[in-house]
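Hi P.,

Sorry for the delay on this. The queue was packed all week, but I finally got your sequence through. Input first:
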Amino acid sequence: MPNRAFVFLIMVAFFMSSLSPNIRANEDNITLTSEDRSEIVRDVLNREITRRREEESKYGTLKKGEFQIILSTLNIEPELVPKLADVKFILMKRSEIEARMKREGRAQYLAFSEFRAEGSKVIVTLLANNWSRRARAFVSSQSFSYEYRQTKGKWAGKLIKSGMLIS
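Then the structure:
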C-alpha cells in the first residue's frame, strides 16, 4: 500500500494541474488599472459598433442619428464606459433589463460576460443578446471573445473566437 504522504502529493499535483493547464502562464500575471480596463472596454465596444453598423448597412436597416445601445453593467464599472460620437449607452443592471423584457416584450443588449487577466494577456467576451416574445419566444446571442496584450504601452486586441446561438 502506498505511503499516505505520497498519495497526498499526487492528489495535490493533480489538483494544481487542473487549476491551470499552463502553470507557467500565470507567473507573469498582470494587474489591470482602471485606465487599462477603460482602454480595453473602449476598443471592444468600438468593434461591436463597427460590426453593427456594417451589418445594418448591408441589410439596409442603418438609421441616421444616434445609436442607442443597452449595456449591462455586469462585469464592468459604469465609469469605464466611453463617450463615443453618435452613440448613447443606456447602462442597466440585469434586473432592469429583465424588467424591460417583461414590460416591452423584447430587448437587445450587450453584456461583458468575461473580463479576466490570464498570464500576460486579458481575455474579454462580449455578448450581443436579442430577446423577443412576440408571436413566440425568440432568443439569439452572439459572443465575441478577444485576447488583449499590451504592446508599447497600448492594448492590442484580436478576435479569438465568435459564435451564435439561436433558439
